Amino acid sequence: MRRKERSTSRFAPATFQGLASNMWPVVTILDGTATPPRGGEWRAAPRPHFDWWVAKHLSARPCLARAPPPRCVPQADWPASWRERLVLTQDQPRGAGSKVEILDAKTREKLCFLDKVEPHATIAEIKNLFTKTHPQWYPARQSLRLDPKGKSLKDEDVLQKLPVGTTATLYFRDLGAQISWVTVFLTEYAGPLFIYLLFYFRVPFIYGHKYDFTSSRHTVVHLACICHSFHYVKRLLETLFVHRFSHGTMPLRNIFKNCTYYWGFAAWMAYYINHPLYTPPTYGAQQVKLALAIFVICQLGNFSIHMALRDLRPAGSKTRKIPYPTKNPFTWLFLLVSCPNYTYEVGSWIGFAIMTQCLPVALFSLVGFTQMTIWAKGKHRSYLKEFRDYPPLRMPIIPFLL
Amino acid sequence: MAAAAATAATKGNGGGGARAGAGEGGGARKKKGPGPLATAYLVIYNVVMTAGWLVIAVGLVRAYLAKGSYHSLYYSIEKPLKFFQTGALLEILHCAVGIVPSSVVLTSFQVMSRVFLIWAVTHSVKEVQSEDSVLLFVIAWTITEIIRYSFYTFSLLNHLPYLIKWARYTLFIVLYPMGVSGELLTIYAALPFVRQAGLYSISLPNKYNFSFDYYAFLILIMISYIPIFPQLYFHMIHQRRKVLSHTEEHKKFE
């Protein structure tokens, strides 16, 4: 049979080398650098005759059914684009400085070109270098990514390990003015603490003038003030000493949104609980005692969970691990729920609502529950995505239900 | 606000056909629209709503011709107005289920504001029903809704006449301020009657330690028009520039 040297240039690179022992096409792995010939498109190669021919001969010669061992194509036969890449990688020994260019993700404008960047440099260091040329974009505000529409690169990522060529092209997006999480938390929790006390002490211009600086005659009102204040003092102390934040900052507008929510609701609840016309709970001391017990248990539970989560993560790190129950009985809720801190938080507020028998408190609990459910579901989903062996019994926020 | 929110927020409320089929918006993003059953249902829904608002329009014209004056025309179209405007609540369901690609929040906001005006203001405060401001917003809504629902119908059937698209993105310039004025004047007219009757209000002391002053609530609603109206209005103007200029380009290349 004649040796057919048919270069299948219309189809993906698979050089047909003739019919002898080389009748199997040589497969080259496409990495995207090979270009289709004559500016045409790659097409899946339809080869009905070849397939028929092979099938016919396979049945006659079973030895052909075994795939021949892969052949190393000598470099001289490589496509030109492959040879170029080889030259590039060989010319740049590891350890020499890399180049980084930073483009705007929306306009593709060249913002910065960094020469002689250490290949071991992290994204954090590159952000610092970028700030030198554009001081208005401090590192917390920068989002650098490999693809304009892709995910942001993390600060810990090393330049060398990223899938980039000798000159790394990073796309920049401005995240807007940032504010630290700690600042936001302290502000949004200090507000309700202070505001509630304004209403509790019946500061002038809130209720009628004859009530200024008077005190309620109901015990439950004093108890409610203690519980509410304790709750927010606990939150402030946890922000300062317990929580370990993954992110340093959040967008500035969040502080306005969050403070409006917390301060607004605190004022609304405090107005009714401390009102001179406040009506104590229908079932009296029994109801108050039960609700107080629920509140205290849930506060302890919430604190235990925060401590357990803190212990999962060493200081200064951002590791993520599956939380498990510890010796503390309050943490046993981890068996049933991914985010028991939210469960206990909702429990606390339900306890507070029953204790004060105040509809605005119930509404606040409902809104908080809705928001925390959204967060819990998100957290649960990311746990499931990140950990293969995540306990299947756990639900996001309410055992067995939600 | 309710008038323009209707046009502003729900650009895609007629279904994915509005985007992928009609060729507007460049067609660069191919959105998979609702399935054939959902499209059929949406076409029926939009046709019914167009017909309903046409009934209201015809009712208004007939009542005007019969009475000879434009005062107190509300009474002649009260029932179909309530029925078809409340029927718009289904649009929230459409977004929630996913057969319409609009945002649930935006659609709820817009539909609820309309329903609020119909039931919580006009229906509840009977003295306000003979006001002229009611006619102002009813006319604005009627014209807007007829155009909007026919726009969606045609989009779903992939045969959108340019006139309807032009009308939808142009008439709002007049109809939106007209509708907003009508609404604000109606709420303002309702205020003294609300105060007098203590309508929908609860005061202390009560078992649940809660109070609600509907009068103050209505005033807050009126104030909220100030930030919201310009945003929606300029959003629609921006949309108009985008949609109508794009069609111009298409026409040039034909």
From TrEMBL, chain B:
Pfam families: PTPLA. Its EC number is 4.2.1.134. Residues 12-26 have a biased composition (Gly residues). It comes from the Eukaryota. Keywords: Endoplasmic reticulum, Fatty acid biosynthesis, Fatty acid metabolism, Lipid biosynthesis, Lipid metabolism, Lyase, Membrane, Transmembrane, Transmembrane helix. Its main location: endoplasmic reticulum. Pathway: Lipid metabolism; fatty acid biosynthesis. It is found in: Endoplasmic reticulum membrane; Membrane. The keyword Transmembrane applies. The chain crosses the membrane at residues 42-65, 86-109, 169-194, 214-234. It is a multi-pass membrane protein. It catalyses: a very-long-chain (3R)-3-hydroxyacyl-CoA = a very-long-chain (2E)-enoyl-CoA + H2O; (3R)-hydroxyhexadecanoyl-CoA = (2E)-hexadecenoyl-CoA + H2O. Belongs to the very long-chain fatty acids dehydratase HACD family. PANTHER family: VERY-LONG-CHAIN (3R)-3-HYDROXYACYL-COA DEHYDRATASE, VERY-LONG-CHAIN (3R)-3-HYDROXYACYL-COA DEHYDRATASE 2. This is Very-long-chain (3R)-3-hydroxyacyl-CoA dehydratase. It comes from Ailuropoda melanoleuca. The gene is HACD2.
